[in-house]
Amino acid sequence: MLPSWLNAEFIQTKLRAYCKDDQLRVLKLWGKPATGKGENFIGIMTRICVDYEDGSGTLQNKSYILKQTCPAEAPQARIFFEYDVYTREMDMYEFVLPKMAELLREIGITEKLTADCVAVDRQHSILILEDLAPLKYVNADRLKQLDMAHAKLVLELQAKLHAAAVILNERHPELLAKNFSSHFFCREKNGYAEIFTSLFKSFMRYVKTKPSLNNRYGAKLEVVLSHLMEYAARTVDVDAKDFQTLIHGDCWTNNIMFQYDDRGTPINVVLIDFQFCTWTSPAGDLHYFCSSSLREDAREKETELVQYHYYAMKKTLAKFSHKCVLPSLLEYQLQFERRRFMSFIIANTLQPLMLYEGTEEPDFYYLYQDTPKAMRFRDSMYASEKVQRIVEKILPMADAKGLLDPQ
């Protein structure tokens, strides 16, 4: 289960440094899978269980999350290395997130942002992170999606992180000067272009099975397909007028964990998985989150949620001395609307995958390979009645907003 080099001595060294306890002594170490098949494509997640004695002689039993890169021979490895997701996440946990937390503490914001990082080991390309399960953090049900109470907690946290990143860039620009420009939709890389193109073709195949949809939108979608990744890339383009910050980049239900009170009300939230953090407009996080993770009744209040995020970010920034100019709410909404195509592509390609509950076994390469099995899996993503309702609602809205016309 654990690699041979990850033994008691290795963990002992890491825990001594993390706990600042040179007398800490590991007694027993074992591991078990932290995710099921198809729940995490980017790496291998293992829960490490450790029995140790601390410097005071107290016996402790703790668990941690080990994140390893996916095997080099895995079909998806070339894509993840092309986008340098592992280096990016290690940089986030080692340098960026601790400094952002420090900045927020300056203004009295002390709540947890993410799992604490126990160790970053670049030689072995691993992260050892705090296990959030003992703190009663859990993922919400991805199939039920999130209501307004959950959404507002997430947007408040996003706002704090977006504000802290602005201040971090002013005070320590060297920390964000590299590794944060490769979004899913960047023009310079091809891996995710294969994925989104294949998923979009599957979406179009579903539309063709519905004459009422195909007659209205089929020809337009063919034109969109020919420009798909250019239109998508424009959603992360920024110019001097755009408000810019570091976004999470992959903010959806499985990368968000909540604490709940005894009545089941969400009271705290943290984000996990920082492989796709990108310096761009915060609208990227807002579109991705709203179009992938919200229940229909919450998604219908999207404009109010953008306003909620804006005021939360404005409130946080006001507590700092800073040079940035926050746009007006009207301009912020316009900047969000100019990136509407991101919602369209995420809702119709990734969201069906995120809501998948079919019987086909998911594998990452099924998202882009054109083998019969891969195409069968992609097509099965659109068998869900919920997904079909989403498609039937989004297409006329996208058409009315001009997203299906030549851009």
Structure in words:
There is one protein chain. The chain has 407 residues and is α+β, with helices and mostly antiparallel strands. It has one domain (90-114, 141-400): Aminoglycoside 3'-phosphotransferase, Chain: A, domain 2, CATH 3.90.1200. Helices cover 45% and strands 14% of the residues. It has 14 helices and 9 strands. A 5-stranded antiparallel sheet has the order 1-2-3-5-4. A two-stranded antiparallel sheet has the order 6-9. A two-stranded antiparallel sheet has the order 7-8. A hairpin with a 5-residue loop joins strand 2 and strand 3 (59-69). Helix 10 packs across helix 11 and helix 12 (340-354) runs antiparallel to helix 14. The longest helix is centred in the middle third of the chain and has 24 residues, at 148-171. The protein is globular, with a radius of gyration of 22 Å. It starts with 7 loop residues before the first helix and ends in a 7-residue tail after the last helix. The model has no long low-confidence stretch (mean pLDDT 95).
Summary keywords:
single chain, 407 residues, alpha+beta, Aminoglycoside 3'-phosphotransferase, Chain: A, domain 2, five-stranded antiparallel sheet, two-stranded antiparallel sheet, 14 helices, 9 strands, 14% strand
